[in-house]
């Protein structure tokens, strides 16, 4: 996608493969800052502190982190230890474990002297694969938008959190159909949930939609149901950090409430779900998906730009008030109209997922 009119990915390697460059997403939308990751510790911090975030991008970043770590210790012990450290950075998004599993499967059988170079090459393959998957999700989701456009003209879409190109290597998941629709000349408008407490919608989705020239409005998290009641939303598209084998969807906190409002108002609720985010080992999302509990400070404090241009962090919650900060919730499959995958739009059901991705079932068994 584009930043100031120039094409860019969210992560890219140095020519000499000694480091990797990322966009520091904690600095957006007020500052565009890129930073280099050159050690395993750099990658751990980047993932844990959400300089990179979004399930697909976390997975690719971890793959590159493992490749960098193997330059210092490519032994079996080193490979296992680096994988464990990266896996511990974020618990909910399954792409992290998926990417590390793919990397280990390719590397353990290689001579130790060849592992570092092979790991870097494999990480690059996973980055390109992510772009291809998101591109296909965009093409498949475009059909949904085009059908509404034929009937209504302008299409209004609501999305939650940031499942844009910033959450992936390029295109994004939930935004890929939007960008494809824009390319196709479809008139569309996007309602962007602010997505408290980290405001990924207001800070990230709005920023990237603005960069791409897509019509949009930021709304407070609790406004979506009201807009749906008044016929303002034609389609909801969200991303996913982990989808179960039965079609339950784990996404940023507040997604479940949007699904309930969509169901009550007859608004189609679709999830852009790359296969790397599907966990075929879990069947009950509410019971079994680990939900990350993040720092209370994300709720108690907010960062922004003052009218005179200064960046400040202020406290918005009274001293002494206790805070709960679950980062994700689970939307049951019964509320999902369909999963937009790289292999087509499929029902959020166990048999449909098994048919679409039979090779993943073999890996689980």
UniProtKB/TrEMBL annotation:
Catalytic activity: 5-deoxy-alpha-D-ribose 1-phosphate = 5-deoxy-D-ribulose 1-phosphate; 5-(methylsulfanyl)-alpha-D-ribose 1-phosphate = 5-(methylsulfanyl)-D-ribulose 1-phosphate
Protein name according to UniProt: Methylthioribose-1-phosphate isomerase
Enzyme class, UniProt record, top EC level: isomerase
Cross-referenced SUPFAM superfamilies: NagB/RpiA/CoA transferase-like
Keyword Heme: no
GO BP terms: L-methionine salvage from methylthioadenosine
UniProt function note: Catalyzes the interconversion of methylthioribose-1-phosphate (MTR-1-P) into methylthioribulose-1-phosphate (MTRu-1-P). Also catalyzes the interconversion of 5-deoxyribose 1-phosphate and 5-deoxyribulose 1-phosphate. Part of a bifunctional DHAP-shunt salvage pathway for SAM by-products.
EC number of the protein: 5.3.1.23
InterPro entries: IF-2B-related (IPR000649), IF-M1Pi (IPR005251), IF_2B-like_C (IPR042529), Initiation_fac_2B_a/b/d (IPR011559), M1Pi_N (IPR027363), NagB/RpiA_transferase-like (IPR037171)
Signal sequence residues: none
Keyword Isomerase attributed: yes
Residues annotated as binding substrate: 53-55, 90, 200, 251-252
Site (Transition state stabilizer): 161
Entry annotation: catalytic residues: 241 (proton donor)
Family in the record: Belongs to the EIF-2B alpha/beta/delta subunits family. MtnA subfamily.
Pfam families: IF-2B
Any one GO MF annotation of this record: S-methyl-5-thioribose-1-phosphate isomerase activity
Keywords annotated in UniProt: Amino-acid biosynthesis, Isomerase, Methionine biosynthesis
Listed Gene3D superfamilies: translation initiation factor eif-2b, domain 1, Translation initiation factor eif-2b, domain 2
Pathway note: Amino-acid biosynthesis; L-methionine biosynthesis via salvage pathway; L-methionine from S-methyl-5-thio-alpha-D-ribose 1-phosphate: step 1/6
Source organism of this protein record: Methylovirgula ligni
Domain of life per record: Bacteria
